[in-house]
Write a structure and sequence with these properties.
Blueprint lengths: L1 E6 L5 H11 L5 E7 L2 E4 L3 H4 L7 E9 L2 H12 L4
Antiparallel strand pairs: 1-4, 2-3, 2-4
Length: about 80
């Protein structure tokens, strides 16, 4: 399952940390951020650090249990609602 979100502001370390923590709440779900033909593991701080300073359209994909809830939670963080 995939969804798209628009990162209106450049990503900072605090937002990336929130995304990684939220992604790790879903243990039985594989979650990836895709941006500019680069796929990043949403559960890895090292991988997600590539998003620092990035703004624009990105794709979030998830597979496994609770994938819809995982995508919704991550989209809320990207939209600045959490």
């Amino acid at each position: 399952m995939k969804t798209y979100c628009f990162l209106q502001e450049k990503m900072d370390s605090a937002t990336i940390n929130k995304l990684v923590l939220k992604a790790n709440e879903y243990e039985e779900c594989q979650i990836y951020f895709e941006l500019d033909n680069c796929q990043m593991n949403a559960k890895s701080m090292l991988s997600m650090s590539k998003l620092r300073g990035i703004a624009g359209l990105c794709c979030i994909s998830a597979q496994g249990m609770d994938k819809q809830h995982a995508l919704e939670g991550l989209r809320q963080i990207c939209a600045g609602k959490i």
